[in-house]
Amino acid sequence: MKKVLLNENELPKRWYNALPDLPELLPAPLNPETKQPVKPEQLEQIFSRECVNQEMSDKRFIDIPEELLEAYAMWRPTPLVRAENFEKAIGARAKIFYKNESVSPPGSHKPNTALAQAYYNKREGIKKLVTETGAGQWGSALSFAGAQFGMEVKVYMVKVSYEQKPYRKFLMEAWGGKCYPSPTDMTQIGRKIREEFPGTSGSLGIAISEAVEDAATHSDTKYAIGSVANHALLHQTIIGLETEKQLNKEDVKPTILIGCVGGGSNFGGFMLPFLPRKLNGENIRFIAVEPKACPTFTKGKYRYDYGDTGKVTPLFKMFTLGSSFVPPAIHAGGLRYHGDSPILSLLLKHNMIEAQSYYQKEVFKAGILFARTEGILPAPETNHAIKAVVEEAKKATEEDIIVFNFSGHGHFDLAAYDAYFNGEMRDYEYPEEEIERAIKNLPEI
Ligand SMILES: *Cc1c(COP(=O)(O)O)cnc(C)c1O
Fold this sequence. Notes:
By secondary structure, the protein is α/β, with parallel strands linked by helices. The chain folds into two domains: 4-8 and 65-107 and 236-440, Rossmann fold (3-Layer(aba) Sandwich); 17-26 and 46-63 and 110-223, Rossmann fold (3-Layer(aba) Sandwich), CATH 3.40.50.1100. 40% of the residues lie in helices and 16% in strands. Helix 5 crosses helix 11. It is globular, with a radius of gyration of 20 Å. The protein binds pyridoxal-5'-phosphate. Residues 108, 110, 137, 227, 260-267, 334-335, 379, 381-382, 407-408 line the site of pyridoxal-5'-phosphate (PLP).
């Protein structure tokens, strides 16, 4: 079997919500000032009402609205592909499959939740969506979604990326999104940071603070979140639900699921629908892969922390490197977040998922082998998953079925490949002292 396809009418009609199946109740997000659990009304100041409901829902399955299914059908279901050439190249005894999320218009899994958030906000009468973006993957996915549902989109883009990686900015503009280098002078927090640190190159944490402030201070505007939040993972479960259907159709039982982790949305969306199998005692492992330069799961602490630098977001119980930690400038921009999804963090604490970390040169080497054998050039983030596949395949047996999520293509990351081929790419050591300093600054709860 080379390729398994689903018909459009076989798209999953419901998302899977993992909250009722977690080994313990998910610790509530806390108000950053009072340190008391956040009330839904407070979250509704920045998020759509429906997304807030989903964030705390105890229903195991949540219907996907018809209009959204129609939008998904533009590129979904995505292919599940047997990577036979790659198997041969690495001498794998196990079978290897990949779920190809790179076939969406923006080229990654991110529009699965961008479309859902745009749809619900539109339905609730909101005119404008604001967000932050690092390298531009999320900003472009939200701009695409805004164009589909007739919403204005405003993106605070980390200044250094805005200047050094303009192509995704052009893509945002092509879809009608407006993009600004953060910190801007359009928000209080942005003006404060520009005053304190003139010439700063910005960070994801600062851009989040700006976008959240913008949403909180404008009644026609809401904030859209690219990852981490429960509802972002929920929307992404369409990936795992499709994968499950595709594997079932061929009577294939996966034993190892692998994905890269920035905030956890593609990995969570991919593996969570298989969580009930693990809870039933079936033989299945889930492996989250991160950069050694930003080792949230492998070196972070399970603590309450802010989602941003400006401390305007609620506090989340999660694995974190500290919200004041600014990770080294590796090429996998989407994996440079200090925290991680609370759902996945809880699963890691209970050893229901595993975590691995790799250096960027070794992950690019694995990604290039994948491009040469299977044809598709992976995103730098996706290369992390591929490196873990190589390592797991060495230990796996003929009985093993490895499936990984191919989160996106690397067509806008060619400068990173250029750096690799020119020998200019370097590995960053795990910045132990810096992380320790940032962990010391965590709020006491
Ligand atoms: C954003 C991104 C990631 C990381 O984000 P998650 O929320 O952890 O999925 C991974 N791969 C690609 C291609 C991305 O664009």
